[in-house]
Amino acid sequence: MIINRKIPFKFLLNEIKIPLIIVVLLGFIFGLLPKYFPNFSPEIPIGIATTLGIAISILLSYKINQSYNRWWEARTIWGAIVNDSRSLVLQLQLYLNENDELLRKIAHYQIAWCYALDKSLRKQDVLSGWENLLNKEDLEKIKKQSNIPLAINQLQTEAVRKLYEKKTIEEFARTQLEVTLTRLVASMGKCERIKNTVFPPTYGQALNISIYLFVVFLSLSPVLQLNLFLQIIILLSISMLFFILQKLAHQLQDPFDNHETDTPMTSLSRTIEINIRQLLDEKDIPEPIQPKKFYLM
Amino acid sequence: MIINRKIPFKFLLNEIKIPLIIVVLLGFIFGLLPKYFPNFSPEIPIGIATTLGIAISILLSYKINQSYNRWWEARTIWGAIVNDSRSLVLQLQLYLNENDELLRKIAHYQIAWCYALDKSLRKQDVLSGWENLLNKEDLEKIKKQSNIPLAINQLQTEAVRKLYEKKTIEEFARTQLEVTLTRLVASMGKCERIKNTVFPPTYGQALNISIYLFVVFLSLSPVLQLNLFLQIIILLSISMLFFILQKLAHQLQDPFDNHETDTPMTSLSRTIEINIRQLLDEKDIPEPIQPKKFYLM
Amino acid sequence: MIINRKIPFKFLLNEIKIPLIIVVLLGFIFGLLPKYFPNFSPEIPIGIATTLGIAISILLSYKINQSYNRWWEARTIWGAIVNDSRSLVLQLQLYLNENDELLRKIAHYQIAWCYALDKSLRKQDVLSGWENLLNKEDLEKIKKQSNIPLAINQLQTEAVRKLYEKKTIEEFARTQLEVTLTRLVASMGKCERIKNTVFPPTYGQALNISIYLFVVFLSLSPVLQLNLFLQIIILLSISMLFFILQKLAHQLQDPFDNHETDTPMTSLSRTIEINIRQLLDEKDIPEPIQPKKFYLM
Amino acid sequence: MIINRKIPFKFLLNEIKIPLIIVVLLGFIFGLLPKYFPNFSPEIPIGIATTLGIAISILLSYKINQSYNRWWEARTIWGAIVNDSRSLVLQLQLYLNENDELLRKIAHYQIAWCYALDKSLRKQDVLSGWENLLNKEDLEKIKKQSNIPLAINQLQTEAVRKLYEKKTIEEFARTQLEVTLTRLVASMGKCERIKNTVFPPTYGQALNISIYLFVVFLSLSPVLQLNLFLQIIILLSISMLFFILQKLAHQLQDPFDNHETDTPMTSLSRTIEINIRQLLDEKDIPEPIQPKKFYLM
Amino acid sequence: MIINRKIPFKFLLNEIKIPLIIVVLLGFIFGLLPKYFPNFSPEIPIGIATTLGIAISILLSYKINQSYNRWWEARTIWGAIVNDSRSLVLQLQLYLNENDELLRKIAHYQIAWCYALDKSLRKQDVLSGWENLLNKEDLEKIKKQSNIPLAINQLQTEAVRKLYEKKTIEEFARTQLEVTLTRLVASMGKCERIKNTVFPPTYGQALNISIYLFVVFLSLSPVLQLNLFLQIIILLSISMLFFILQKLAHQLQDPFDNHETDTPMTSLSRTIEINIRQLLDEKDIPEPIQPKKFYLM
């Protein structure tokens, strides 16, 4: 997640340098052509280019809107994970005896679950960095499954089951814990949905083609064929705007992909860890994750 | 569901070849007409065509937006089915004795339900490919009903009823299982709603007519009547953009129709099967569905 | 609900014939005026008309969007009615003894409730076509109330009350049934909200005036005043597009009004009847409602 | 709420007469200026005005969209109040003995609550028109609080508490009634949110300034400076469209403000009263509220 | 939150004075350049500037839309906090003995929680202004945690636990209180999400660049290069519109940032305090927060 109010211009430019080079080339080709081939003077009226420009703005706005909605949904899901993790511990403290060993265990499972979900969504090594939260036996169990966070949910379910069998919690408390775990399973599924569902690529491809078409049509407008340098400046400045927004939309679409615009899952997992450990009145509280330059992962 | 970030251009073009041929023909007719009938020179001002072009962009954006919402809703419903299927098994493991035969039975019913829903939405042979998950008696029962997934829900309800009658689960656990089954019935109903509700076709028909009108008006603009070849290139490139987006909207509207852009129901059903079988600690785990070329069904 | 992918063009045209005739008249009047009154040559620049044309497209898109949302909400509410009707029967079969007479009674009340809601929303004779589902005494009771579906809800509540008094269901089962009935009451209220809340008519009236203004301004543009026939063709083709979309928006706004674009309530009620009777393993299963021409009611 | 499909044109015009007079004045001033000060001929190209016109259309559409959403949300909240009021009575009839005096009391409290909420949102005398629904002691109690509907909720809570203390309802039934009351408290809070949150006025002010700017720029376009009368007709017709939509947006924003476009709270409260009294099988059923001219309050 | 229907123009202008000065400078530079360097006459066609102007309007509308949604979501979350705070007290009064000391304690915790959340979101001194609501021991406890509102939630949970241990409430009542507390934890998490998630700044930066580009292109249009004074008036009036809307969007994005457009959290917390104290029938009721000039904090 980007945390600065202003992103370095260099960063923005770096993301779209290839299309900008293509625009410069197109500008040169179609700007010089009439000079070497005087017979070739298509003179496309500027109305064609401006119509295309407005069409691109409209389509781009929709794309950004939908990409933003995905990105915001992703952030909302992780917000729900934060809430349910905190509530889970408060519920345990309401329904259990404070010093129960299983209380601490389920709370630690929850921290492990967050880190595991973070790493599995980012396609990183799922079983590293938090293994100490589980004992050896648990680790053996979850390694057998392909979906590690779901396997941790099963561990939690089993622990709640033991609480009930030991008569530590009543029937109703068991159900309330189950409801919270069900919500966490649902949040995990929602993250997987966003991760695995590619935004229809046709839209982006059609937009890209349109921007290049716009550049070509604009550079062939008779009113622009006076000054090659000025023409390229105009082409660059408008197409840059389109490409930056297109790139932004592209990144917001995939909020679990190790971009700078990602949902800050590692940082949120750390916040959850800090909150849970403080609620448990533990001593060793880790530090919050520090931002890298202008973003937070 | 399309899983590649880039769709082969050939595929896109193939989808819209008929309208493009019509555009070429219209371009020829209205481009050549003034040459053979010099008296016929309508000279429609380009403002008419550009206004229509902008109008089309606006209407198209709305259509894509609403189609995308349908497609995303369909995917979200199946995401909820994934979540509820997993939660159902975790609930059973929380409330039942681990080795209870009915636990495995309800879980297998759930796998069968997913495959049956997939096939019934795609209008394929509903009772094939997963029959081994049900015993003969169950198969007889569900064949009597016209809505097979709903019939499987009834089998699950009956099994939960038996659990309660055998005193295996308490009153409250029974209710929680019922709540999950109710959510699954609701997800099924939501899929049927999307499947059976045709997006108002007037909108798409009006858009199509507008695009052809746009092509005609543009080809009759005086500023374009210089070079037939160039004119057809311009007509093709802009109308191609419109037709691709129109086609995209059309496909996203119907996410259960055996398109490449479908919700990947078979693949998700397989994921559910793998997850459930691993949660049950079974041995024979099937492989995930492999994508075909650039999409997944 | 329209079920064909293509609506006959004749049907579309029939809906908007009056405004189209007005457009032709306006085109004649403002096209011929300068010929008879040469001094009258307003020559409104085409920019005015194109601006108005784009403004109309923007406002029209919003109107269609909001109308579509109403229409889709109406369909979603009836989807929820389908789901809750099915779940109600499954719940009864879970909580009750299979052969209990009240089970069948509540299920039949549910079928009656759907038909009664359908008819009361369409302002048809509410008490016909399904009376055989209720006995005489029940019919007497509900006739005393002005809201028939709500009266049937009261009958269901009473039946659930009897089940509990007879000790047939436990406290918790009673509550679950009540929750489902509450959801059905809410769905009914949502339908009434859509039915009774007129979409602000100012918007549609302002749009209509704008389209006629657009026609007048366009017909007075100097660039168009060359060929009366061509001018009227252009006026007709663009305004037709606007009027069709305006009409579409108008119909989608009111999804319970006996239009061809209505939510297919009768057909959905029949589906509910079929599903419920099959779940009850009854013998006399009615046929699904057949579509009329290109739509389903 | 407006209930006619067509609003009298006089009514629309009356709402926007001041801005229209300003437009006429502006048209005169900028139309006559060049005649008296021939040196003053700004000749602003029409492109500036058309761009501004399109910009206004876009911004206006968004404003109407958001205003409509507020208005629809307000209507939806009152729809939920209707549903919960009905369900509350059905719940009481399910859980209580039919002739219990408290049943009738809680139901009457509910009718009083609706009228009180209606009047408190409209800043009318809250304690009039429905006082007979409460006894003297209750009236004394609620007068001590600044939020009358909330005070009635407290009376209801107290009554439910008595039902439980008298052992008339079980633990679970008590909770279900509490859940319904909590939903009603939430609906009240949602109404207060809409009532007390002023839509950001900057947007509307910026739009108003833009419309006047548009009028000035348009009247200074060289192509329009031929015929003063015609010019003012054009200015009026386009700006009237903008002002009507701006006014509509303005009214939809505030659905509890004694406008003709208000949520019909008094009428809905009456419907609730009729429904509740019929469910209670009472004799004196009041008449529905009759519309005033073309709207319903 | 702004409470006046009209904001002083001075206030609006003050917010955007820097960009307006830049616009004046740009207008001077590009307006005077051709006079001193007659060879430099780029003559960019006005179509480029108008296209950019329309593109800016479209992108701006989307930004305002999304910013408004964030702002409205923030207000909705605090609306839910108001509702849940009221319901919590009503629930306690339903389930507890009226004079129970813990009832008053939990209600006072709730008031403290609201003020603490307000101050922690606004990055003010969290522990001031409401400390008297907690006793010394409680204050010690919550100071140990980094998230003060969450620590207060833990105090509430502990108090509910004591109620259950003292047998003051039943199992089911305990759960209902827990559900309300869980909702409050969720509302807190939602506020943190909005506070900590920076709206993608690329969008705003790209918009700003576009507005300056628009100014430059417009000032270089040949049709405008006649009258320097008039030109700057036009540049200022249109760019002012864009900058005001851009600024509005910017402020709505961050509703917890001590702006005049903030969610009025202090005022809402005070309302909650008044409501709770009146429900508890206390004597010392504080006054509502008074607005400062034209806004409420």
TrEMBL record, chains A, B, C, D, E:
Where does it mainly reside? membrane
List localization entries.
Cell membrane
Write out the transmembrane intervals: 12-32, 44-62, 202-220, 226-245
The record gives the membrane topology as:
Multi-pass membrane protein
Reading the lineage from the top rank, the first entry is Bacteria
Q: Name one Pfam family in it.
A: Bestrophin_2
Keyword terms, alphabetized:
Cell membrane, Ion transport, Membrane, Transmembrane, Transmembrane helix, Transport
GO-annotated molecular function: chloride channel activity
Q: Which GO terms describe its cellular component?
A: plasma membrane
Manganese in keyword set: no
Q: Which family does it belong to?
A: Belongs to the anion channel-forming bestrophin (TC 1.A.46) family.
Q: What is this protein called?
A: Putative membrane protein
